[in-house]
Amino acid sequence: MPLPLILGIGAAVAGAAGLGNGIHGAVKMKDANDIMKLCERKHKENIECFEKQNKSSTEDMDILGKKELEVLRSLQEFSSVFEKIHNRPEFKEYQKDGITIPSYDPEEIQRVSVGAGVLLGGIGGAAVGTAGGFAAAGATTAAVMALGTASTGTAIASLSGVAATNATLAALGGGAIAAGGGGMALGTTILGAATLGVGIMVGGIIFNVVGSSLSGKADEAYEQVRKERKEIDTICEYLSELSITAKDYTASISKVNGIYQKQLNILTYIVESLGKKDWNDFSIEEQLVTENTALLVGLLYNMGKVELVLKSNNNSTANKVNKNVVKKAMDDAEKILLEKGFVASN
């Protein structure tokens, strides 16, 4: 066979092979593009799913956190009236059926009340999730911490509104105020729209979702989105449980607080309107009102100490809802209200 013909056939075969490879490459490229578009869509759906549940849960936690702080701040009203009563006995710690309520401590009530006031002063202009972060870590603990110092050595209570709340959240989360009071460098910094408070509620696992970007490689992106969905489901399940618990606890605290406010009004009437300032002048019924009001103060103080969230030790697992402790706190409250005749037995 003449050489030119052989070369021509070889060129044709090579051309056909090249064309085949080109077509195969184009198909692979199209498949990869389709996969990337699918991954981007799924990634967006994942984030939207998280943000929807997070918004709902954060609102429920914010309601609880604000309620707890308002209750703690109001305890000072009791102290103001109670301290005017002379010759009153020292009320002992309540201990019964596994329930312990601390005895009245004026200094501690003062600290908690003032600290709660400091935090409430900054919540109005603070980010969503701020009050919820306090509830997650324990509102009583947060209130006391608000009277401490930031990592810079600055007294938190001396900071203006939002700065004070952020400094307290940072302290609760192990972070520190950046030099000059600028941004907040939290040990578990939360990316994107998440706040310091949300970071305390959700935990480090949020790193794996919020602010993450997809890989440029189709196969890696597909695996990333699949793993992301699993993490989203875990987080949303936790947030849903947190939401339910927060609503239940808000209802429980509100119930106790409503009864406490009525008792406080009666005590205020006895001391301020009737002018009774000596314990020996109190009738048995008036003494009982005083004792019960002091007990309710201790009960509310205790309820504010409950941490709704148990922090995870790593970024690969979600936090846990402190269900057992929350349930015990609510059950204890019901038992005390029942014992003192504030609620009827079923």
Rg, nearest Å? 30 Å
Domain count: the total is 1
SSE order: HEEHHHHEEHHHEEH
Helix and strand content put the structural class at mainly alpha
Q: What fraction of residues sit in β-strands?
A: under 5%
Q: Give the biggest beta sheet.
A: 2 strands, antiparallel
Kindly report the average pLDDT value.
78
| Low-confidence runs | 3-28, 174-194
Give a nutshell description of this structure.
This protein is mainly alpha-helical and 346 residues long. The protein is 66% helix and 4% strand.
Sequence-ordered SSE layout with sheet pairings:
Blueprint: H1 3-82, E1 94-96, E2 99-101, H2 106-123, H3 130-137, H4 139-145, H5 161-173, E3 176-177, E4 184-185, H6 196-202, H7 218-273, H8 284-305, E5 309-310, E6 320-321, H9 323-339
Helix pairs in contact: 1-2, 1-3, 1-7, 1-8, 2-4, 2-5, 3-4, 3-5, 3-6, 5-6, 7-8, 7-9
Can you characterise this structure?
The protein has 346 residues and is mainly α. The protein has one domain. It has nine helices and six strands, in the order αββααααββαααββα. The chain has a two-stranded antiparallel sheet with strand order 1-2. It has a two-stranded antiparallel sheet with strand order 3-4. Helix 1 crosses helix 2, helix 1 crosses helix 3 and helix 3 packs across helix 4. The longest helix has 80 residues. It is elongated, with a radius of gyration of 30 Å. It starts with a helix and ends in a 7-residue tail after the last helix.
